[in-house]
Amino acid sequence: MGTLIQDVRYGFRMLIRSLYFTAVAVVSLAVGIGLTATTFSLMDWLCLRPLPVTRPGQLFRVFASTDQNPYGSFSYPDYVELRDRSRAFSGLMAIDHRGAALKGSEGSEGLVADVVSRNYFTVLGVKATLGRFFSAEDDAASLAEPVVVISHGLWHRRFGGDDDIVGKTILLTGRNVTVIGVTPKGFVGTRNVVRCEVWYPIETWAQQERPGEMESRERRDFELWGRLPPGTTVTEAQAEVDTVVRQLAAAYPSTNKVQRGLVVSEARFRLKGKGALLLLAMLIVGLVLLISCANVSSLLVARSELRRREMAIRFAVGGGRARLFRQLLTESLLLSLLGAGVSILLTKLVIAALPALLPPGVASMLDVRLDHRVVGFTMVVSLLVTLTFGLVPALRASKPNLTPLLKGEYIQNGKGRRRFSGLNAMVVGQLALSMVLLATAGLLMKSFLQCLSTDLGYFKKNILLASLSGSGNNVEQVRFYRQQLVERVQTLPGVKHASVAQHVPLSESGGHAAKRVFLPGDESSAQEQGQAIKFNVVGQDYFRTMGVRLLQGREFNELDDQSRPKVVMVSETTAQSLWPNRNPLGQLIRVDKPQGQAWEVTGVVEDCKHFNVEEEPEPHLYFPFGQMFWWDMTLLVETSVDAGEMVKLVRHEMQALNKDATLSSMTTMKELIRDRLSERRSLTELMGTFSLIGLILATAGLYGVVAYAVNRRRHEIGIRMALGARRGDVLKMILRQGLVLALCGLGIGLPIALAVAHVLRSLFYGVSPTHPTTFAGASLVLVGVVLAASYIPARRAAKVDPMVALRYE
Fold first, then answer.
1. Model-level pTM?
2. Which among 497, 534, 647, 726 is placed 20 to 30 Å from 243, CA to CA?
3. What is the average pLDDT value for the chain, to the nearest integer?
């Protein structure tokens, strides 16, 4: 123990004596490990963190799977039958994600609300912090007075943590509801990245808000979650669910078409679609960490060269090789501990700064934290870095060549050259990794710019979006209110057009709803099952408001109401899919059933991006709001001024028509697009930042190696200049060395970058993974930086005084 303490003390003294070396090494480690820890924290929040519930590993998702959609939802009657027939699950619950508006003395606030089955909290194993959760006896009692559960965060934010909140009535989406419980701190529902703050029981919500929906098998909006008890296998649950789902498909062929049951673990489903993102995250942090570690290793090797004489003297006076090795390894461990400490501090600072760097919509949902797992991960990475990159320099430095060193001679033999070649190899590796980072960042930047340049009419428009919730049971009353609202808003100063829609492009609301379409007179086998096509319910002037071009026919007008024949508009892809080489105008479709009511096509519009900018065009239908009612819709207001300035005026018109009217949320189309592209923008910025950091670290390593080479060759340079070499010759010689290293790095890095780009090609929109301009630009940047980093030591070498150089060592 005494020897260890002595090694630690001596190591600290040596690190303090070499403050420049210590600072550079610690900063390199801190940057590499800190960025790794930060990225791990982000990935943990996004898709790795388990839900804060009892035994989350027992939770499974249940789906109605079809060829078109393997992860389909269920209707409420389907859920009830599955729940009652299930023997494999200890509990099966249903969830539908909705919106709500809380109205109080502080104004109206849009909230995320989940409509859930009464066994929701029981299946999850969550206990109430205050009050209680739903139970079987709530059903009859709450018909007269609906009940809700609120989140711990909402309880503190809007009600000051008042213990008397249980039993109080609050105004939620225009209806009085009674709060019966508060969830525990940290529980925000079943989606880590979306904070739910209100929970309704399905049964009472549907009877109060959506009469008739409880019995409908056409509305397939419910996610099903189940808990498998110990001893029950996934195979058993899969077989049971598949049997029931197929029986339902046979019993109700018009709504449950060609469905199979699918059971997937909650943890596995959370990773769905994020494989490329996780791979990219691991790639960028791994590359930056490798570059950082190579820097530290280069510094350790160079420092061991400077301490050759010290090691020789200690060895000559009796210090064994093991003793020297242990001392050097102790110093490396001290460096790693310092690097880990600074990296934890750096990670905290970056996490604290993240909300300011992200769009407000994303920042409000952010829950990234530095927990014990991340701290432990940081410490393990630090130790691995030390063992991997500190071991070789320590082994080399613990084997000094005594005779020439004790005489004060400078080693110029092949062994010395091999050490220098080892440093060159490290720098070449750093440059190759930097090339991979630069090329990938360039492709992401090109892809992001391609997204921004996509031809979408609503990208450049000032459009205000106000979510409307249809409270009340009177369909005609709600329909009339919305028509009056649109007419009044259109008369406001600064308003160009106004309309309503069930689904707004690039939003999450209602856009995945589909209708099964049948073509009259088509007897083909494909038409026996119909074709599922996504749809939207829109008001008059919707396409003009959104800037979507009409290609054929006419738009909806005020005459398209319940008293007139049914009409429908289709997208360009729909027309080509259903009626190839024919005029779609005047064609008929039947909806939901082969014998259903016929709808006549009166117009064709251009394809839109409905869910994300990268999607390929797919068939879409548009029904007039006057002929197909939808409860939850959005008011769209195109303005000639900034859309945000119209919020107060629109809210005033709503209150003037109905003093109890509430807004679930209000935003603008530009904010919606910004939030929709925020993941790609953040990914591009993150990749660009990491590439810059990696390039800076690699440049620092290159500068150190070239400067070290110049220092070792001072005697040689002096001889060359004494024999007539000019300063320009010396400058070219040193720059040539840097250029050779850059070309070697490019030769290794380019094939790796191309391979990585092909693996990550799903992240690139509208850009080839072999885009020549991007790779050429990255190569030029790398060569330019290398030459700039080599110039300073080269210029210093060109100014060497031959007489001083000849006397060097």
1. 0.70
2. 534
3. 80
